[in-house]
Amino acid sequence: MATLKVPEVVPSPTEDSERLRKAFQGLGTDEDGIIWILGHRNVSQRKKIRDTYQQLYNESLIERLNSELSGDFRNAVIRWMCDPPERDAKLANDALNARQKGIKQLQVLVEIACASSPHHLMSVRHAYCLLFDCSLEEDIVSSVSQPLRKFLVGLVSSYRYDKGAVDLEAASSEAATLHEAIKSKQLDHDHVVWILCTRNFFQLRATFACYRQTYSNLIEEDIMKCGNGDLQSLLKVVIWCINSPEKHFATVVRDSIIGLGTDEDSLTRAIVTRAEIDMLKVRTEYAYMFKSKLDDAVIGDTSGDYKDFLMTLLGARM
Amino acid sequence: MATLKVPEVVPSPTEDSERLRKAFQGLGTDEDGIIWILGHRNVSQRKKIRDTYQQLYNESLIERLNSELSGDFRNAVIRWMCDPPERDAKLANDALNARQKGIKQLQVLVEIACASSPHHLMSVRHAYCLLFDCSLEEDIVSSVSQPLRKFLVGLVSSYRYDKGAVDLEAASSEAATLHEAIKSKQLDHDHVVWILCTRNFFQLRATFACYRQTYSNLIEEDIMKCGNGDLQSLLKVVIWCINSPEKHFATVVRDSIIGLGTDEDSLTRAIVTRAEIDMLKVRTEYAYMFKSKLDDAVIGDTSGDYKDFLMTLLGARM
């Protein structure tokens, strides 16, 4: 379900490194060449290019890209070239250090905790410790206030069972627990935290389905009627990231382009982090939700190398 | 600080496997031979023996030991031969499935979370998922009641920064937060959970030292005056496991032998899990706390192969 397109015959990491080196040299940088190579390589191929480039030229490819490129194009290429756990650790840290820490920023933590694998989340926590000399959860405790804090600490601390074991009886009883909390507008009840932060994703999807069946409403719609401000928005992101990440990321793209100006950070994040995972589904969902094309939205709101790079990741340029 | 003694020249895993095979064959089992070999090998040597034995004889060494040995001796040898993360995952599961779930059982979870490395704790959580088809924290939520539940979920979910970064200002302010919670007998306050479950061990030791300096008492002594039953006992174990695990394990050994009968499970756990880590310190602490020798206590309360095996791990038999 990726939009990333990798050529059938992939050049060796040495060939790619040599071409990149050439693209950096001489007067001006050959941005097209860089997009052509890096925008058509998957995560393990990019890692090999990084390693090979370092060995061949005794310099960091990422640092070189950083000095050769600029603006949103640079940010996008560098996010794309980082190892995913390190990239996400940096995204999490940026969110926690943002001047404003609303849902728009904090949802990044939910994406990492709920829209990727338990193993990836652990690697992000490990990378976070290495990069920032403290744990991710310590930084959440010191920079996010209640009641979001306890959910975010719980979500990023989870190490969920990652196979499809579903206990239908538990799903039914936990749907009732969630319904009770929603009815009494106690979204921050510890039981809600435990259910959302410890159950495996398959189990939670069954619980949400059970909720809909029993109470005839989508759980996220009932949550949004609680009048609980930021918390209800956060929980909606949690439920979407678990249940249908494509809905969430379609909305991230949409929010980044509507209104005056573009939120390039969010747009870059959505495309860079999902191009190899489920961007095809995100594109379909976008069309369904917003009755327009995601690709047109990106083309309309971006320009130059930045646009070309995003469109390459979206599979539109081969 | 280990009591385990490994010979200067260690036989190859193949030689060890062949000797073990011989010890199993014929009429009756050669328990002395088994103790002699396995009781003098460290964790990586034991892993190699397990792998080599499996390759040579196409049977699991642990299953063979299980069928050859019996009673407390068998339990101790098998705990010793398991990979440590798997062993601890099983210990945690036993604790959560015990009919009675008091501090005596639940402290095992604290030992795993607070008296071993963050990396080991992660490996235990991974092993738990593989062995029991659900996460460790899910089982805690479903089988432990409040207020212990929220501490245990927080403790086992931690992935603490593992280098010695200490922020003295934070230590002082968090010592004050802990003091406030103790004074108002609100040990289960979320702030107490966050401090104990997210801060790195070096930081927490500084916080406890700061507490002592500012309030002229050991924090665990003040906690024990809160009249908070099981929670105060659990928090004392948390503080000891972080601050001075040797005190905790000396007490586990002591509690396992005093009174009528012996609690072999606890005695085995303390010696098997710490023989390679800090058993020398536990022995010294035991002498200091109880004015008697740990080795004498073990000799007095155990017998036969079980005694010989434990004493081998304690370094008394070479």
From TrEMBL, chains A, B:
Keywords, ordered alphabetically: Annexin, Calcium, Calcium/phospholipid-binding, Metal-binding, Repeat
InterPro entries documented for this protein: Annexin, Annexin_repeat, Annexin_repeat_CS, Annexin_sf, AnnexinD_plant
This protein's record includes keyword Translocase: no
Entry keyword Cytoplasm: no
Gene3D superfamilies: Annexin
UniProt binding sites for Ca(2+) 1: 24, 26, 28, 68, 261, 301-302
Binding site residues for Ca(2+) 2: 257
PANTHER family (alphabetical): ANNEXIN (PTHR10502), ANNEXIN D3 (PTHR10502:SF99)
Written domain comment of the UniProt record: A pair of annexin repeats may form one binding site for calcium and phospholipid.
Protein name: Annexin
